[in-house]
Each structure stands twice: as C-alpha cells, then as structure tokens.
Amino acid sequence: MPSLRADDITMAYDDRVIGENLTVGVPDGEFTVILGPNACGKSTLLRSLSRLLKPTAGTVYLDGKDIHRMRGKDLATRLGLLPQSTVTPAGIPVLDLVRRGRYPHQSALSRWSHEDEASVRRALEQTGMTELTGRPVDELSGGQRQRAWVAMALAQESPILLLDEPTTFLDVSHQIALLDLFAELNRSAGRTIVAVLHDINHAARYAGHLVVMSAGRVVAQGSPAEVLTSDLLAEVFDVEATIIEDPVNGGPHIITRHQGSRPAPTAPILRKVAP
Questions:
Q1: Where are the domains of the chain?
Q2: What global pTM score does this model have?
Q3: Over the Cα atoms of the chain, what is R_g?
Q4: Which end of the chain is more exposed for a tag (fewer CB within 10 A), N or C?
Q5: Domain at 4-258: CATH code
Q6: pLDDT: is 209 or 249 the higher one?
Q7: C-alpha angle 178-180-183 in degrees, rounded to nearest 5
C-alpha cells in the first residue's frame, strides 16, 4: 500500500461536487504528476491529499491513518504542501518566510538549532534565493515570490512534498531549474514528489507516475509511456497528437495540434510590407 492514498473519495465545495468515487495511490519514492485540462479537479485532489479539503465521502490515508485524525505537527513532519494560492504576511523578509518551514520541527522546549539553520540555508541555495534573504517578499517579482515559497516548503524537509502548479509565474529557465531540483530530491533523497502541472511534455519528462484527470474523474494512472497515448490525449485534451521519443530521456514527447485545425503550411507565407 502506498503511504499516501485516497480511497473512494468524493470531493465537494459545499453542494458543488467536483469529483466522486476517486481512488488514487501515490507511489512511495516516486515523482508523480497530476495532469488534466483546466477545471478538471487536479488542485482539488491535491487539496484533499493534503488535508486542506475534507472529502464528503471516502478516506485519505497517510501511513495507514486517516489523515483527518492526525495531529497537525505529526502530519507536517511527514507531508509538506506548496498551495496554488499563497498569502504573504505584509513586509515579511524572504529569510523569515523560509524559516517558517521549520515550524513542524519546533516545540516549546526546543531552540533554533544548527540543523534548522542548515535546512534553511540549503533551501535558499537550491532555489537561488540566497541573495534576496533581506528583501520583503511582497516587493519581489511573481517568479521570485514563487521561489521563496518553494524554499519554505523545501526547508520543511518532509518526505512527501505536494506542489500545486509550482512553476507558475516562472520563466522557462527557472521552470526547468525547479523541476530538475524536484527530480534530484526524488532521486537522491528518495522524497515522494506530487505536482500538479499543465505542461504535458514537462510531465512526460519528469514524472515516473502520472495521474490523468478529466471532468472530476481519474481516467488513467501509470507511467508516461503507458498513459500518454494518442487516444487519451484526444479524449482528455481535445488534441491530435504525434508521439515521438524524447531525445533527452527516451520517454514520450508529445507534438500536438487542436483537432480540426488546418495542417501547417509546407512553406512559409511571405507578405510584402509597405515601406
């Protein structure tokens, strides 16, 4: 049994049901990506796995225990979360925000330790935020703010890390840098990573396990090579797809166009521009 799993859960906001009868297992020590079109329930599933949202039916288990019956600190030492929407305390410097990631490891009798300091320093270095430690978070660019929050999640050093669209606001270079970092944490430290992503090829390249959702249902689970077929991409994303071998890792690489769109011209169309 995976350490983190959802058994036959129904997810809802008040009377609005997002998904019913979902069963999902998160493989231990794997990089899992939840993939699907907008408004299909990806972030809601992640919120349910992290205890931010209590299912109206079914149960989410962590280490065999109902996640809603666990003490908050016990949960936080096992599971970290980077939500999609974050609220930054006014005027808080980057360093103070990242230090909050160590909260689950503190107690009334413990003091800030060398281990705490090393975890914070490592998280800042990993996210490229060392030079910005004194800057207020709310004065940073969107991408810098995102990396500050990622650093806080990394400083928590929980063995399971849930990430809701972690590459939001980031340019391509920083997207790749963060995904490489998560992949390295997965490989070298054995941390279980679960991320909601929109980019199909990023998911195909980095994930060892995919959970594909559509209209509140889990329609496929498995490795990228097993899951990412032309038929599934047409059904879930409404695109025609050619699947080739990724030259970087040998996995699937997806070339898409919208179903019904015209084929690309075989030669560029040249137009005269008035002087």
A1: 4-258
A2: 0.86
A3: 21
A4: C
A5: 3.40.50.300
A6: 209
A7: 110
